[in-house]
Amino acid sequence: MVKINKVQLIHLQKKLGTDEAIGAKLGVTRQAVQQMRKRFGIVSRWASNPQRNKKIRALSKAGKSGAEIARKFGLSKSRVYRVIEMGKRKK
């Protein structure tokens, strides 16, 4: 496992953005980065984006497909559907 502290991981998250990119830089998998974030209590920057999530749910209600929304925001279809599902659970 890579030796990295919380401050370094936060810096990489701001600089590189995704767990996948951080993993590539560190030579570990995306899942390993996700586990490090959880251990340090760092929230994913994608999960903490309420404005984007609100737009995704609005586009879904307007009839846009998951694939169209995913392309628009540069996300995977599964991420789009998770955002939509999270919105349903909060109600």
Question: Key terms for this structure?
Answer:
single chain; 91 residues; mainly alpha; 6 helices; 0% strand
Summarize the structure in words.
The protein is an all-alpha fold and 91 residues long. It folds into two domains: 6-40, no CATH class; 50-90. It is built from six helices and no strands. It has helices at residues 6-16, 19-26, 30-40, 50-61, 66-73, 77-90. The relative contact order is 0.10. The model has no long low-confidence stretch (mean pLDDT 88).
- Amino- and carboxy-terminal Cα gap: 40 Å
The number of domains is 2
Low-confidence stretches: none
H/E topology pattern: HHHHHH
Report the helical percentage. Answer: over 70%
Major β-sheet annotation: none
Number of strands: 0
SS-based structural class? mainly alpha
Taken from the alpha-carbon principal axes, the silhouette is: elongated
Give the C-alpha Rg.
15 Å
Total DSSP helices? 6
The chain-level mean pLDDT equals 88
Strand content: under 5%
Topology:
Elements: H1 6-16, H2 19-26, H3 30-40, H4 50-61, H5 66-73, H6 77-90
Helix pairs in contact: 2-3, 4-6, 5-6
